[in-house]
Write a structure and sequence with these properties.
Strand order of the largest sheet: 22-23-1-24
Distance between the termini: 7 Å
Number of helices: 14
Helix content: 25-40%
Strand content: 15-25%
Number of strands: 24
Bound molecules: ligand EPZ
Structural class: alpha/beta
């Protein structure tokens, strides 16, 4: 039975909460363990459904996991049991495609199901495949699978047609063991790409420029094990800050990395929130009523697409009209229809949503459609008059670790029902 969340709105959230580590850093870090036969220890892995999924996939490939008494998860792929990422795992989590580059680099063979589309868009992996082909892999698509082979990957110059986060990560991992130097141009600059580069460097990789649009990787014959702490989740941090803003509350998020959130913080201030930014914490005092704020999503360091739905819930209560333009995914406004069922006034015109602010939301039964849409509905429920039920909350569990417990700690009247 799909669980759901019941929320009694109207409570101003108060207090302090700590952000967990980032799903979008944990997934590539786990995939990187395929690159060596030695053990890798990852600290602070988040307890998320997507992390469980990639662990299942890695176990099928030959990884052994153990929890260390002093904390940390030890993962070791002494030898490969399989080279195949099956459809049933890839279709539930498209980030499984992150095993493609490491498998190819480690063994010269990989067979990964094509991820197919998902709720928010087609999300092809042509840039991943173009880059691996440039590195010397033979790539064939057959029966819905990517069949990749390479005797030895050879370093080269790769210019991505568009900025792709997991594409950059896949190619960086493959290039780490290639012969010679690889330059990735038009690379993604997300903090999660930088975190992966740190992990790979700790394993012995030679990488320069991670975090810029040009990454240079000098291939090495083999990589070793290491210990690495996963980066805090900037999207969860942002979601918790919006929870403070939308309820007119006073919320401090610790274990934060403010420089990874500057575009979001700027928009929160534009919307009227009062912020205090510390070394590793951010305090957000919400306005009585948000101000209209236009948003355009773009790759890091621009406004993150993964925060678009959450900010739409906030500015849906503003005293005026806001324009939200989604430039990354072609179908990432599904939360809008559900917010309208709570009284929001939103019209979609292609890649732009026109959000006419309303005084308040009415609690209502709503349905989550994707990970960040479900967060948006929870936020609207926290501010709404009356009771909101968010169904299909398994979407939320993919990327948020015990979100309702964190919100309860801040005073929210929210509970999970079977
Ligand atoms: C990563 O997805 C994140 N996932 C996403 O987070 C995030 O929304 C996205 O980056 C953008 O920031 C992980 O890191 C595991 P892309 P990714 O490749 O890498 C197109 C969440 O909510 N594209 O940067 O799959 C693609 O269709 C998730 O946590 C191609 O056309 O995104 C999209 O329109 C959702 N060809 C755009 O580029 C390719 O080969 C950006 O995609 C690759 C991508």
């Amino acid at each position: 039975m799909a669980a759901r969340l019941e929320i009694e709105g109207g409570v101003r959230l108060q207090g302090e909460v700590s952000a967990s580590s980032a799903k979008n850093a944990a997934l590539p870090a786990l995939a990187a363990s395929l690159l060596t036969a030695e053990p890798v220890v990852l600290e602070n892995l988040p307890a998320l459904a997507d992390v469980t999924t990639i662990r299942q996939l890695l176990e099928r490939l030959g990884a052994e996991f153990s929890e260390l008494p002093g904390g940390g998860t030890r993962v070791q792929v002494s030898r490969l049991k399989s080279h195949e990422a099956p459809y049933e795992l890839v279709s539930t989590m498209r980030a499984s495609v992150l095993v493609l580059g490491p498998l190819l680099a480690r063994t010269g063979v990989a067979r990964v199901a094509l991820p197919g589309g998902c709720a928010i868009g087609l999300r092809p992996i042509d840039q991943h495949l173009k880059g691996l082909t440039r590195l010397g892999a033979d790539i064939e698509i057959e029966n819905g699978f990517v069949q990749a082979r390479s005797s030895r990957l050879k370093g080269c110059r790769i210019t991505s047609d568009l900025v792709t986060v997991t594409g950059t990560e896949n190619l960086m991992m493959a290039a780490a063991l290639a012969e010679g130097t690889t330059v990735i141009e038009n690379a993604a600059r997300e903090p999660e790409v930088v975190d992966l580069a740190w992990l790979l460097q700790a394993m012995g990789a030679r990488i320069d420029g991670a975090g810029t649009e040009r990454i240079e990787i000098v291939g090495v014959p083999e990589l070793g094990g290491c210990r690495h702490r996963i980066l805090p989740d900037r999207i969860e941090t942002g979601t918790l800050l919006v929870a403070g803003a939308i309820t007119g509350g006073d919320v401090t998020v610790t274990n934060a990395v403010p420089r990874n959130l500057s575009a979001l913080l700027a928009k929160l201030e534009e919307a009227g929130a009062l912020l205090e930014v510390g070394e590793d914490r951010i305090r957000c005092q919400g306005p009585e009523r948000p101000r209209p704020t236009d948003l355009i999503t773009s790759p890091f360091p621009g406004f993150p697409t993964d925060m678009q739905a959450q900010m739409m819930a906030l500015i849906g209560l503003a005293d005026g009209l806001s324009r939200v333009t989604e430039t990354i995914f072609e179908n990432r406004f599904m939360h809008a229809a559900e917010l309208c069922r709570m009284g929001a006034r939103i019209e979609i015109d292609g890649a732009t949503a026109i959000v006419r602010g309303v005084e308040h939301y009415e609690g209502a039964p709503v349905m989550a459609t994707d990970l960040r849409a479900s967060a948006s509905l929870v936020l609207a429920g926290l501010a709404a008059k009356g009771r909101t039920g968010v169904s299909r909350v398994y979407h939320l569990d993919r990327g948020y670790e015990r979100l309702e417990a964190k919100l309860q700690k801040l005073g929210a009247k929210i509970q999970r029902l079977p």
